[in-house]
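In this supplementary section we document a worked example of the pipeline. Step one takes a protein sequence of length 92 as its only input; no multiple sequence alignment statistics are reported here. Step two produces a three-dimensional model, which step three serialises into structure tokens for compact storage. The input and output of this example are shown verbatim.
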Amino acid sequence: MRTDAHIEVALQPRARRDEIVGLRGGVLVVRVCAPPVDGEANHALCRLIARRAGLHTARVQVVGGSHARRKLLRVADIERDALIEALGVSET
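The serialised model returned by step three reads:
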């Protein structure tokens, strides 16, 4: 039985491109082009994580910090280590 992965994210909205920068101190650093207006940056974050991990977008959701740059994501039915591996990131 798999558990849900919870991962802390430092999000930079209004970036030049959507990208996952890497892990810094256990925090996933992500940049998205979308502005932090009406949840657009949060939606872009969830889409990017899902696409890079090969998951359906509905499995990724912001569960904490929806109005802050530091967020907590829950990714359903995948363990944290498997998620990090699927994203292809390493500690920077």
